[in-house]
Amino acid sequence: EPVLQALDLVKRYRRPGGGRTAALDGVSFALRRGSTLGIVGESGSGKSTAADVVLGFTEPDAGEVLLDGLAWSTAPERERRARRNRIQSISQDPLGSFDPRADVRSILSEALEAIGVPRCERRDRAVELLERVDLGAEHLARNPLELSGGGQRQRVAISRALATDPEVLVCDEAVSALDVSIQAQVLDLLAELQRSTGISLLFISHDLGVIRHVADEVLVMRRGRVVEAGRTQAVFEHP
Ligand code: ADP
Ligand code: ADP
Questions:
Q1: Can you give the residue ranges of the ABC transporter domain (predicted)?
Q2: Nearest-CA neighbor of 207 among 216, 218, 196?
């Protein structure tokens, strides 16, 4: 059974001038446990909307997201809250998701507090989380603005996402803003985390080269629809 499934998702937005845009027009996919599913497509093809529906940030007009075979939309609120810890995300701009006044220690402590880790254990757990992204304890006292723009900020965002021990990590253009060499480091880190934890990745990017490198399976989107899907090698063999 796939860890995550999207079944026939539909999401329409009203256009300013009237009429409606189908950001998602019947999108289905399955993420196999421990694997990476890449979603690729031009800007405006519906990738981020798909990610937001999976994360529960956007309610679809129709369709369903299943986690471990269980429907998300019909689950009771309590269950929905618990599930949010099981699907985490990182985005293009980690800085935008951090409280600018918080240091790394409090960013990680807050995530640990949210899942009920007692105060006295939070520092050690925060250090462990940093170790998993190859950052030392000396980074605890830093403000996100004092971290290197590409690599270190995204590493802290990844470590915060790992705090709840999620089964799925949604990466929405997570390396798109990074220099190529730093991009490669972050991709290597994600691959290493996948090997060690078995985490499943939903990896969204407009960059074919990146998708080709990371994805086991690929979904190509255009205007809210899936126009191609399959094993990465097979999809990219097409002329
Ligand atoms: P992508 O991530 O592939 O760039 P998006 O999912 O962001 O695509 O957008 C898909 C379509 O839905 C686009 O036409 C976009 O303008 C529209 N759209 C996305 N979010 C909204 C919104 N909150 N309000 C109105 N239209 C939106
Ligand atoms: P609705 O208001 O129809 O429930 P929303 O798109 O506001 O649709 O939210 C869908 C679900 O996702 C809700 O349960 C909401 O609490 C949750 N949600 C929305 N935004 C966030 C967010 N930023 N972080 C966590 N959960 C969110």
A1: 4-239
A2: 218
